[in-house]
Task: inverse folding
């Protein structure tokens, strides 16, 4: 019996040893600045206008705090906006009118007005239970479930207070679900407030990405380390620490010493890409593909072109 058990265990050990020896391709998560979908360059203030619908107050308050957190805008909340409009005898509900918007802009300066209409702010709950099952002692049991789902739909509108023109309109829907279970008794219901809060947060976050540059973390996958090319691992370690300039130097040395190593060229391409040297990055990925057919190199070239386009948008938005 022991002899038969040994064989699969031995195979497992061998597989583990092989995997440990070959290793996995190293990777790193790095921050990438993405441009806003709508260019609000020149508008340094955002006035928070009307917030209609059930949940409108919650959405508007969260929008105010998140806009402030971007550091890109001076934010005029609804209370201050209301006082300002009252002083100048302007009707808040009429701000969407082009003439009224321009009139308000005279007092606020270069700004945009953000309004929100919440059409859905719901929480639904459903109860269910499973089939009867037996434990090891033969006792019968049943599992009970309570599921909760929060749904938030909001339409955001951005109006220029310089021209009175509508710059952007976006309807966003976000959902968040949760389920609790218990044996032989009904569990507690999922937390309504928490789920609505998460859905509201996701809705506002999506809108913020429309009007303000944002940071997104992406996973960068390097070529497998090669003991014959120590500069590759050295460069990866620098990249993981965020020292891309030093990583670039090591990868340049790697391709200089090993010009036919596709992995070294791949890593060099990544270093060029994430130091915003896009022409050089495309050339490096092309060299890697020439040495060894590399579909991912061609895909990465498209990613480089996308990043180059995004950098131009970021510059135009005054984010660089």
Result:
């Amino acid at each position: 019996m022991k002899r038969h058990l040994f064989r699969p265990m031995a195979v497992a050990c061998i597989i583990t040893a092989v995997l440990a020896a070959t290793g996995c391709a190293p990777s790193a998560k790095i921050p990438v600045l993405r441009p806003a979908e709508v260019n609000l360059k020149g508008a340094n203030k955002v006035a928070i206008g009307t917030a209609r619908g059930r949940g409108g107050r919650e959405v508007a308050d969260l929008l105010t705090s998140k806009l402030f957190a971007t550091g890109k805008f001076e934010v005029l909340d609804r209370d201050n906006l209301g006082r300002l409009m009252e002083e100048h005898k302007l009707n808040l509900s009429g701000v969407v009118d082009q003439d009224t918007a321009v009139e308000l802009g005279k007092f606020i300066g270069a700004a945009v007005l953000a309004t929100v209409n919440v059409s859905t702010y719901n929480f639904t709950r459903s109860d269910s239970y499973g089939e009867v099952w037996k434990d090891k002692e033969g006792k019968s049991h049943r599992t009970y479930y309570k599921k909760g789902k929060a749904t938030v739909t909001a339409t955001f509108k951005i109006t220029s207070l310089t021209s009175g023109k509508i710059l952007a309109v976006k309807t966003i829907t976000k959902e968040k679900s949760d389920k609790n279970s218990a044996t032989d008794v009904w569990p507690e219901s999922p937390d309504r407030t928490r789920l609505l809060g998460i859905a509201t947060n996701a809705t506002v976050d999506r809108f913020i990405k429309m009007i303000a540059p944002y940071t997104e973390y992406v996973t960068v996958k390097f070529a497998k380390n090669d003991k014959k090319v120590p500069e590759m691992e050295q460069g990866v370690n620098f990249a993981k620490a965020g020292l891309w300039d030093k990583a670039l130097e090591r990868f340049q040395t790697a391709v200089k010493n090993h010009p036919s190593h596709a992995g070294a060229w791949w890593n060099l391409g990544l270093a060029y890409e994430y130091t915003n040297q896009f022409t050089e990055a495309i050339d490096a990925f092309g060299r890697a593909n020439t040495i060894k057919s590399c579909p991912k190199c061609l895909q990465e070239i498209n990613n480089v072109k996308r990043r180059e386009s995004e950098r131009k948008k970021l510059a135009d938005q005054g984010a660089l």
